[in-house]
Write a structure and sequence with these properties.
Radius of gyration: 19 Å
Number of domains: 2
CATH class of the largest domain: Alpha Beta
Strand order of the largest sheet: 15-14-13-12-11-18-16-17
Number of helices: 12
Keywords: Membrane, Transmembrane, Transmembrane helix
Strand content: 25-35%
Order of helices and strands: EHHEEHHEHEEHEEHEHEHHEEEEEEEEHH
Protein name: DUF917 domain-containing protein
Organism: Emergencia timonensis
Largest sheet: 8 strands, antiparallel
CATH architecture of the largest domain: 3-Layer(aba) Sandwich
CATH topology of the largest domain: CV3147-like fold
């Protein structure tokens, strides 16, 4: 077991804001959750490895669901949403004769990686060093849970009032159906809600998910914080820790955004700067970055990671924080192996790529 302190939690928030690939909750909101909680409590998160889980126990996912823009506007500290959802899931697990004692995130992201830490501290439930995705994702059916045939239900949803809705579809493996159900509840909850589900064993984590994901995030985050504080080249420093490469450096000249059906849909346009002067780039996204282009040529597609940082501050940027005029560094990173265990690691993205008008082939890191 490792006890994560406030600096560690901040490092994870920064790292997962970067490796969330545009989504997973804004950096500002993740820091708001951390700072608000730290005003009244010591930050001390009990993080355990997958191997340290007791054999007869299970872990549940805790996450926020909705529009990143709406999360930013809501001002919630997310305690009510997360704790209510977790306690509801714990009750459901007991009915299933499963001892739910641990929590873990649904994805990388400044918000969604820290939400289970909040729940861990409030409910004395160890935080497991594992991530299903190793990136952020737009929907429940775009996760290694779904593509590798793990049950998605039951799940519990909650809003900031403590209202909760329990979803128990007839087919617990129907991730698309559950996504549609949850997304409609999310709209009813004004596109800001907590969700708990995916009651998972340590054996399933080892076989299908990404163990050690938060040890990695901790390392990346501390390097990122040090680089920002010492005014070092962030790209150079990050590349010493994780596999990555630059796609471009550019000025954000135009940002198109629409919030619909619980999602942020957007397109960002860039004019190259420095060695990229004279070149045109863009990113299409649905909460998360889906395709990066130079002109009309796709440079990278999901599930690999398209990550953005502010060149002037070194801070990672999610799509909820992009503003025209910013100077942006765009990095590519390979997705974890969990995405490449079957063809569905690519096929599950088809409906989202179709929505944004992409008809091309997968372009891997």
């Amino acid at each position: 077991m490792r006890i994560l302190n406030e600096r560690d939690a901040k490092a994870i928030i920064y790292a997962t804001a970067l490796m969330g690939a545009g989504g997973g909750g804004s950096l500002a909101h993740g820091l708001y959750y951390l700072n608000t909680y730290a005003e009244k409590h010591e930050i001390a998160v009990k993080m355990i490895s997958v191997d340290e889980m007791e054999d007869d126990t299970f872990a549940g996912v805790l996450a926020g669901m909705g529009s990143p823009v709406k999360f930013r506007e809501s001002g919630t500290d997310f305690l009510v949403e997360s704790v209510t959802a977790y306690e509801g899931l714990k009750e459901k697990a007991a009915f299933m004769n499963r001892r739910l004692t641990n929590v873990f995130p649904i994805e990388y992201g400044a918000g969604n990686s820290f939400v289970p830490m909040l729940t861990s501290m409030e409910c004395d439930a160890p935080f497991v060093d594992v991530d299903p995705c190793g990136r952020a994702v737009p929907a429940l059916n775009t996760t290694p849970f779904a593509i590798n045939g793990l049950a998605t239900a039951p799940c519990v949803m909650s809003n900031g009032k403590g209202d909760k809705v329990i979803a128990e579809p007839v087919d617990p493996y129907d991730a698309v159906g559950l996504e549609n159900l949850c997304r409609n509840v999310c709209v009813a909850f004004d596109m800001v809600m907590g969700i708990a589900g995916w009651i998972t064993s340590k054996e399933q984590m080892k076989k299908f998910l990404v163990p050690g994901a938060y040890t990695k995030a901790l390392q990346v985050g501390h390097i990122l914080l040090d680089a920002i504080e010492k005014n070092l080249d962030v790209s150079d420093e990050i590349s010493k820790t994780v596999e990555c490469r630059e796609l471009w450096r550019g000025k954000l000249t135009k940002h198109e955004l629409a919030v619909e059906k619980g999602f942020d849909f957007g397109r960002t346009y860039y004019e190259g700067i420095g060695e990229y002067v004279g070149r045109q780039f863009r990113i299409d996204y649905q909460n998360e970055n889906l395709v990066a282009y130079e002109g009309d040529e796709a440079l990278l597609t999901v599930p690999d990671l398209i990550c953005t940082l502010n060149l002037d501050t070194g801070c990672p940027l999610t799509n909820a924080e992009l503003e025209e005029g910013q100077n942006i560094l765009v990095l590519a990173m390979p997705a974890p192996n969990a995405w490449y265990m079957s063809e569905d690691g690519w096929n599950c993205w088809a409906p989202f790529l179709e929505t944004i008008g992409y008809k091309g082939e997968q372009v891997r890191y």
